[in-house]
Amino acid sequence: MSLRRSPTPGPPTRRPPSPLNNGSPQLNAAPADQIRLLDVQALDVRLQQLAHKRRSLPEHAEIETLNKDLTQLRDLLVAAQTEESDCAREQTKAEQDVDQVRQRATRDQQRLDSGAVTSPKDLANLQHEIVSLAKRQGDLEDVVLEVMERRESAQERVNELTERVASVQSKIDDATGRRDAAFEEIDREVASVTKEREVVAGSVPADLLKLYDKLRAQQGGIGAAKLYARTCQGCRQELAITELNEVRSAAPDTVVRCENCRRILVRTAESGL
């Protein structure tokens, strides 16, 4: 942005209240200083735009959505890991039960084969127990197989979710990298514009700049506006004929205010006066 330069201004003077100033004490500043205020305003608008751009980067929404997906996937992964762990413990218990039954059946079979049991009743009982143990072993082995199937399914689910978590995390990392790169670019421009603003604002009379900053805080970031074709560029309202006549008759160094929005009105060759 080119800087409009003028001789170093003297301190602004104050005159009695005027309708152009909404009853406030009249502030005066050289026309060049008032025009320079538009340069300050343009830089402040650019800083506002950069702040909005920083807040509105598409990566913000992308990262937020991905983080929600990641949270859900991690919850599912924890549930799958818990299920796999439970199945592992259940499988271990079932295999121990099978082993215990197998060992008992082996001992019974050895007793039967040894001939040490001679009583017909004891032999019958022993044979019956061996048959029962064989059935029990078969049932328990079926349980082991069923648990193994459930565990295998849980492991597959864990592997699938682990891959999905890694994929989403990779997307988050990529979006975060793009966001941070955009931050760096925006912040560099903010630093440049801020420095330029300090230089330009430093050439504006202190009282005028103080009024501008006060109005800018009150009026959504716009404290000074050009009067263009009889219209305030701050509120986009055309001046009423009485207000227009007052502006026409005002001295060039009079700091005038918009009757509608109270912003500082800066007169230029395009004001249509």
Automatic annotation (TrEMBL):
Matching InterPro entries, A to Z?
A: CT398_CC_hairpin, Oxidative_Scav/Glycosyltrans, Zf-RING_7
* CT398-like coiled coil hairpin domain segment(s): 40-220
Task: List the residue ranges forming a coiled coil, or say none.
Answer: 144-178
Q: Where is the composition biased (Pro residues)?
A: 8-19
What keywords does the record list, in alphabetical order? Coiled coil
Alphabetized PANTHER family for the sequence: PHOSPHOLIPASE C-BETA-2-RELATED, SCAVENGER RECEPTOR CLASS A MEMBER 3
Q: Does the keyword Coiled coil apply?
A: yes
Organism annotation: Streptomyces graminearus
What range(s) does the C4-type zinc ribbon domain occupy? 231-265
State the name under which the record lists this protein. Answer: C4-type zinc ribbon domain-containing protein
Residue ranges under compositional bias (Basic and acidic residues)? 87-111
Region of interest: Disordered: 1-29, 87-118
Q: Which is an annotated Pfam family here?
A: Zn_ribbon_9
